[in-house]
Design goal:
The complex is a heterodimer of chains A (840) and B (296). Chain A has 840 residues and is an alpha+beta fold. In chain A, 46% of the residues lie in helices and 13% in strands. Chain A folds into 4 domains: 86-331 and 422-488, no CATH class; 355-419, 2-Layer Sandwich (Dna Ligase, domain 1), CATH 3.30.1490; 513-671, no CATH class; 673-827, no CATH class. Chain A is elongated, with a radius of gyration of 32 Å. Chain A starts with 33 loop residues before the first helix and ends in a 7-residue tail after the last strand. Chain B is built from 7 helices and 14 strands. Chain B has 296 residues and is an alpha+beta fold. Chain B is globular and about 60 Å long. In chain B, 20% of the residues lie in helices and 40% in strands. In chain B, the strands form 3 sheets. In chain B, strands 1, 2, 3, 4, 5, 13 and 14 form a 7-stranded antiparallel beta sheet that branches. Chain B has a 5-stranded antiparallel beta sheet with strand order 11-10-9-8-12. Chain B has a two-stranded parallel ribbon with strand order 6-7. The longest helix of chain B has 15 residues, at 151-165. The chains are: A alpha+beta (840), B alpha+beta (296). Chains A and B meet through helix 3, helix 4, strand 8 and strand 21 of A and strand 1, strand 3, strand 9, helix 7 and strand 13 of B.
């Protein structure tokens, strides 16, 4: 049984006057929290702490992040999740659900009127100024009829609970309801960290909601097809919620695309893929309203798709939410919802909004000016208007208030005033204890065939400080999973997408967007660059560390020269290093590992890998991402340690090579042999050829090229020492060594092996039907022929030809790379052309 | 014909873009077809586009302007858009500005609550993308508007003051110059003059719209008319209850008459720019515009 006062709540002191989610005013645990609290009690503080740490690690490994603008600590911040969920009782939820559906239905009706007949502003119901003055009222979208008549496909609303226990709407999200992806991530973490608690609490599952979302989007498609192409349009990796965009895209089985991946031809939207243009049926957008079409929506940003609005007019494509739906996000509308609800739905509004006055109405303006100290003033529309600072009137001087009054009087319609919201508190795990923290809850709806579906759960957000009233993930708040309890046991529903849909989508092999192919190609190249660099550095450090350090200097020459040739050392530095003392040489080598400010250092390569990994997150497995994170973590740990000596460096490089092997292994074993994998592998083969030919050229031109120790170094670099020994069982011989690393097709490190793979890949890439080989193909054929005609035996007789071949290969590879880029990755930038200036 | 002060113009407006690199696909929106107004009949209109667009459609925008959206999809390094139209214009009937309602009365009509009948005009009271109200503009405008002064007399006076106080300087601004810079430096072109007047009127609560069009140029006596030397022109229109929309040209300090064929009306330039385009590829580009307003 639940003890009247649990140990976990021993020091839990709720503030007088506020509603606490877990405790009633008598200090008793509320009935719907009892199972959760009892189970947490059983776990105990220590275990809960341990579970929480597991959860954090899981979040880190999954790469759940939230981008914070202008954060000097780096842009991505790990997502913050509190281990104690917020619990909602079944009865309460049912009421809330009905109220939410009504509100979504109402907002959709208001949007339909504003972008249609406009009866509300012409015949009463809405003050005309409220609509007509808004920059978010997109005139070019007026008259466009969205698919199925739905303007508001997805909707979210922030709720707060007042001291009397009643829920209030504090803001409506009508344009891009963010957070549904984080909600999903939160659920995966909490249900994993607290599996037994989750099971025993009869928590309603979220999977059904995402199923509704998928059905709803599929129904928007105009084309009659079972397999509509749906894309998620992202503003790009710098957007604050990029993580959830790629997460949702992957979960729902859609392609994540940027504006430049799409193009409008013949009034239709197409996705640029490797094999040409593919029609797009539905766009789930994460790009703001007026950024969506630089042609018609007057925005100089180039995030959108020129011609999209015209394509929408023709009905050939659907966008969710409809363009212009941001209009209803203005808090000013809250003042009119009760009246609109009666007028449009013939019902009383069930979910009250926080008390709101829109100063565009004379009476409201007078009320606001007379009560400025009690209210919170904010901009009513997206404008340059400045409201109150977060602290409200109390944080303003008399002159600032007078200034604000003047601004309101000058353009009253730009301002809205709201009552301050007193948030309820919920138990939050802080420093091993439960503490009450202000909480607000965002809930989600999606339009179904017969009305809206509500997600049975949501995203609870916690203010970082007690007594805070503003909650923003931008300002460092944390989040909670929301558990809506069921009356009885909950059937097991998997969160995985239904397999039938997903398999169909993934079978089409030729649908890779060009930009994704580009990113995968570079991911392959950087991964191999990391490996080659690590090998070069390890071989150098080992030789430097050996007993015969002085005689090893000559052996280092080709290693350092290769680093220089690949711009990882400044020009001329290799030679300077070779003549410097050992300490200086050692120090320089160590900076190539850890100095992230240095172009070409291992840590900067790892950073690039992480960035590229983020860009293809929706195309790669979780394990792949984990392996990438592991690599960064490995370097980061060394960077954070106070001492870093040669020995540490060798240990680090060994570990990195293992991490990279894991990455390659995952790509090799777990990726289907579709074009994504092909580009990853092409990148890797090209990079390996560059490093190998670069190194071999320099090793061969060394004055001690045919000495056993120099040949040992070659075998080591090519990871072929064991093979060599098993084959020849004698001291390295120059012709045999170069044969093994250049021409042996069975050796996966040999140059010819790389070319064989590249040829296979290129033959399988989509190509123009013309009979002539493409430029890239021609470059490759030329290189292979040159290599095949090389006879390594001339090396033992001092003949030339081998060096020449190697030089040719080293120069051909960048050309091949450029040609591939032109053939497959070209996405030209768009620009704007206006009229000439108006004169006279 | 002359007695009724009716003028007929043949207007040719040609825009040529030259690109340094080929354009693979381009999307354009043009607003070049003259509107019909109480003072103007648009007789015929033709839009010739080279290369021929693969898609072209014409509709009315929110403000009733004719907008043509087209897309050129073949590789091209040059785009030529020629709009030719014939319009008949007549002078505004002799307006007695002194008989218009007073500023105080009109101002009151556009304060909350505003009659839904005034909706169409009302939307031109608010800030628009390129014109934002400011107390400084209000203070400047106020000198022309005593509460009991007939509103249109006030507008005429404001038009005159802007013409006097701002210097016409075609080198000073571009279409992207913000209004506060025009205000601070007191110079600009017709577009800036129109925006300035609109900002002043809106800042004191009057609805004002931006008008794009042309101006017939009269050659000096004895000189032939130069073909293609004309330009696009812009001015503003103000709404006066009982009278309707009345156009003023602050660049030339006059009421707008039969020499001002109208093309499009919007909240500011961004609603009516004659030709905009988004290009994929293209590199650097060069624009050549030739306008000819020929009385026939």
């Amino acid at each position: 049984m639940v003890p009247a006062r649990s140990r976990l709540l021993r020091d839990y002191r709720t503030a007088a006057g506020a509603f606490d989610e877990v405790q009633d005013s008598a200090g008793q645990v509320r009935p719907h929290y009892r199972t959760l609290m009892a189970e947490l009690e059983d776990l105990g503080a220590e275990e809960l702490q341990r579970r929480w740490e597991t959860g954090r690690r899981f979040i880190h490994e999954q790469g759940v992040t939230y981008n914070v603008y202008g954060d000097p600590m780096g842009m991505e911040r790990p997502w913050e999740l509190d281990p104690v969920p917020m619990v909602i009782a079944p009865d309460e939820w049912k009421q809330l659900e009905a109220a939410l559906i009504q509100r979504a239905t109402l907002i959709n009706a208001v949007l339909a009127d504003c972008y249609g007949d406009q009866k509300l502003i012409h015949q009463g119901g809405l003050p005309p100024a409220l609509v007509l003055s808004q920059l978010d009222f997109l005139r070019p979208c007026h008259g466009i009829k969205p698919a199925n008549g739905v303007f508001l496909d997805c909707y979210a609303v922030d709720l707060a609970r007042s001291p009397d226990g009643k829920w209030w709407a504090i803001s409506d999200r009508t344009q891009i309801p963010t957070g549904a992806g984080y909600t999903l991530a939160n659920r995966l973490v909490t249900s994993r960290v607290l599996p037994e608690v989750f099971r025993d609490c009869n928590v309603q599952r979220l999977a059904g909601f995402y199923g509704h979302m998928r059905d709803s989007l599929a129904r928007l498609a105009n084309r009659r097809t079972d397999d509509p192409r749906i894309v998620v349009l992202t503003p790009g990796p710098h957007n604050e919620t990029y993580f959830e965009q790629s997460y949702l895209a992957r979960y729902l089985g859609y392609s994540l695309v940027e504006g430049q991946d799409l193009t409008v031809r013949d009034g239709r939207v197409f996705l640029k893929t490797l094999s040409g243009l593919e029609p797009v049926d539905v766009i789930l957008r994460r790009v703001d309203d007026d950024f969506c079409d630089p042609l018609e929506l007057r925005n100089h940003s180039m995030l959108g798709v020129p011609g999209l609005v015209e394509a929408l007019r023709s009905g050939s494509v659907a966008v969710a939410n409809s363009l212009g739906s941001g209009l209803l996000q203005s808090p000013a509308f809250m003042a009119f919802l009760p009246g609109l609800c009666k007028q449009l739905l013939g019902e009383e509004l069930k979910l009250s909004s926080v008390a709101t006055w829109w100063c565009g109405q004379k009476s409201a303006e007078q009320h606001v000016l007379a009560n400025l100290h009690k209210l919170f003033v904010k901009p009513a529309l997206r404008s340059q208007a400045k409201g109150m600072p977060p602290g409200g009137a109390a944080a303003m001087s008399e002159s600032e208030l007078a200034e604000l009054k003047k601004r309101i009087q000058f353009q009253p319609h730009l301002y809205v005033a709201q009552e301050r919201v007193e948030l309820s508190t919920a138990p939050t795990w802080i420093d091993g204890k439960l503490m009450p923290r202000p909480v607000a809850m965002r809930v989600y709806l999606v339009a179904g065939e017969n009305g809206y579906h509500v997600m049975p759960g949501g995203l609870a957000r916690i203010a970082p400080l007690d007594g805070a009233r503003m909650i923003s993930m931008q300002k460092g708040g944390s989040s909670k999973d929301v558990w809506v309890l069921n009356d009885g046991p909950v059937p097991d529903v998997t969160l995985l997408p239904r397999s039938a849909d997903a398999i169909q989508l993934r079978r089409t092999g030729n649908n890779l967007p060009s930009r994704v192919a580009d990113n995968l190609y570079w991911l392959g190249r950087y991964a191999e660059r990391a490996e080659c660099t690590a090998r070069l550095l390890r071989s150098s450090l080992i030789r430097l560390n050996s007993e015969s350090a002085s005689s090893a200097i000559a052996l280092l020459e080709p290693f350092l020269q290769t680093l220089e040739a690949q711009d990882q050392l400044p020009v001329g530095r290799a030679e300077a290093m070779l003549t410097a003392n050992t300490e200086a040489l050692e120090a320089e080598l160590l900076t190539i590992i850890l100095d992230d400010q240095r172009a070409g250092s291992l840590s900067s390569i790892a950073e690039n890998l992480q960035r590229l990994g983020m860009l293809v997150r929706d195309r790669t497995s979780n394990d792949f991402w984990r392996a990438l994170s592991k690599l960064s973590d490995t370097i980061q740990q060394s960077a954070n340690s106070s001492e870093f000596l040669i020995g540490d460096a060798i240990v680090l490089l060994n570990q990195m090579l293992l991490d990279l092997a894991a990455l390659h292994g995952l790509a090799y074993e777990n990726m289907t042999r579709a074009q994504g994998w092909r580009f990853l592998d092409i990148g890797r083969r090209i990079e390996r050829t560059i490093y190998m030919s670069s190194f071999l050229t320099r090793a061969l031109s060394s004055s001690i090229a045919d000495t056993p120790s120099a040949l040992e170094a070659v075998l080591e670099m090519a990871d072929s020492a064991i093979t060599y020994r098993s084959r020849y069982n004698l001291m390295p011989h120059i012709a045999a060594v170069y044969d093994l690393v250049m021409l042996d097709e069975t050796n996966p490190r040999s140059l010819l092996f790389q070319f064989r793979q590249l040829t296979k890949h290129l033959e399988r890439l989509p190509a123009d039907s013309s009979a002539l080989p493409s430029p890239s193909h021609r470059t490759l054929i030329e290189a292979v022929t040159k290599l095949r005609l090389t006879d390594p035996m001339v090396l033992s007789t001092g003949g030339s030809g081998v060096a020449e071949t190697l030089e040719h290969l080293e120069k051909a590879m960048p050309r091949l790379s450029d040609e591939l880029a032109v053939n497959y990755f070209a996405h030209s930038a768009i620009s704007r052309a206006g009229s000439a200036d108006v004169g006279e | 014909m002359w007695e009724n002060k009716v003028m007929t113009f043949r207007i040719t407006h040609r825009t040529t873009y030259r690109y340094s690199e080929p354009v693979t696909v381009s999307q354009h929106a043009s607003r070049m077809a003259p509107r019909c107004t109480p003072h103007q009949q648009a007789r015929d209109f033709k839009l010739q586009i080279k290369p021929v667009p693969s898609l072209q459609s014409t509709r009315r925008d929110y403000f009733g302007n004719s907008v043509c959206v087209f897309s050129v999809q073949g590789l091209h390094k040059e785009l030529d858009v020629t709009a030719t139209s014939t319009v008949e214009t007549k002078a505004q009937p002799k307006l007695d500005l002194a008989k218009s309602p007073t500023f105080g009365v009109v101002r009151g009509m556009f304060l909350d609550p505003v009659s839904p009948d005034l909706c169409e005009a009302y939307q031109f009271v608010f800030d628009s993308p390129q014109v934002r109200c400011h107390p400084d503009y209000a203070a400047y405008a106020q000198a022309s508007f005593a509460a009991d002064k007939p509103m249109l007399e006030g507008v005429r006076d404001l038009t005159h003051r802007i013409h006097e106080d701002f210097k016409f300087d075609p080198t000073a601004t571009t279409v992207a110059t913000p209004l506060d810079e025009v205000w601070a430096k007191r110079h600009g072109v017709c577009q800036d003059f129109a925006h300035m007047a609109i900002a002043c009127l809106r800042s004191i609560g009057l609805p004002a719209s931006y008008v794009s069009g042309y101006l017939r140029t009269v050659p000096p006596p004895g000189k032939p008319r130069l073909v293609g030397a004309d330009q696009s022109h812009a001015w503003f229109s103000v709404y006066c209850p009982t009278v309707g929309w009345v156009d003023f040209d602050p660049t030339n300090d006059c009421l707008v008459g039969e020499d001002h064929p109208v093309v499009a009306i919007g909240r500011d330039y961004s609603d009516v720019s004659p030709l905009v385009g988004i290009l994929t590829g293209g590199g650097e580009h060069q624009v050549i515009v030739g306008v000819d307003v020929e009385p026939i």
